[in-house]
Design a protein that fits this description.
With about 325 residues, the chain is of the alpha+beta class. About 40% of the residues lie in helices and about 25% in strands. It has 9 helices and 12 strands. It has helices at about 55-70, 95-110, 115-120, 130-135, 180-190, 195-215, 220-240, 250-260, 280-300; strands spanning about 5-20, 25-45, 50, 80-85, 140-145, 145-150, 155-160, 170-175, 265-270, 275-280, 305-310, 315-319. It is globular, with a radius of gyration of 20 Å.
Amino acid sequence: MEELIIETPSRIHLGFLELDNSSDRLFGSLGLTISNFETKLVLKKSKRTTILCKDFNQREKIKKIITLIKKKIDFPPFEIKVLKSIPEHSGLGSGTQLALSIGTLLSTLAKHKISVDELAIILDRGKRSGIGIESFKNGGFIVDGGKIKNSKKIPPILFNTNWPKNWKLILILDKSLEGIHGSREKQEFENIKSISSELSKENCKSLCLKILPSIIEKRFKEFCFGMQEIQNNTAKIFSTAQGGLFTSKKISMIFNFIKSKEKICYGQSSWGPTGYIILENENRREEIFNEISIFIKKKFIKDLEMIRIEGKNNGFIIK
């Protein structure tokens, strides 16, 4: 083996089904694997273990990941180099992709057979959502079944299907902010107490009677109605922690500008600040992209980046 290269996709988190801490089963996530952002690493044998990474914080994370894997798998010295990485704390799932990428490379190096799910548990991933793990494995549009309280198992995947090729997305990144993460994220989830049972009922009804049948039947308008209902309910619950329905006030302005338009849905991925817009086809995407571009210039909004992205129907590639 001269070297191993791994490429993994990113994902957006589209909302939770159940966030009431009194519930026996919590969370339940919807997510989509996306293009444009990826983790790409190269690993080769070496006389001593070396991490080649420009970002100090990321290098420290890689050291911790290697330490966790070393407790379970014995592998020879190696050199690992970060060629590409997903922006951190932006709601794109960078931590899970980095951890599983390194775990997969090192288990391959050691010729140690281990499943991705086992790696995820070793690396403390999937504590709330299984979306990132499934995106790593298979890509696509994903729904997981949440977690039984205090369980160490990763959430089971209930549904995974290919994203329709003609359904398009716009991603909006606020370069001036980071989403809630780490110990604060854990605390904010614990701070969520009593929530009306009607919210989870609405979410589950939207999922089962709108989102799932409409993505199978390619009924875009119905899909958007269901997605918007779940996103709105998730935003209400997160609003206390993040100071409003969305972390980024700039992205919130854009959503207010487009919310009355037909055949469109939008929201925030995880704790943000990244926002997304889902559109029926390429022409509609260009129309909305241009309208928002004019709005941003008119309102003198700074530090925003809009990117045309696609849903991605495959997971990691190792070569």
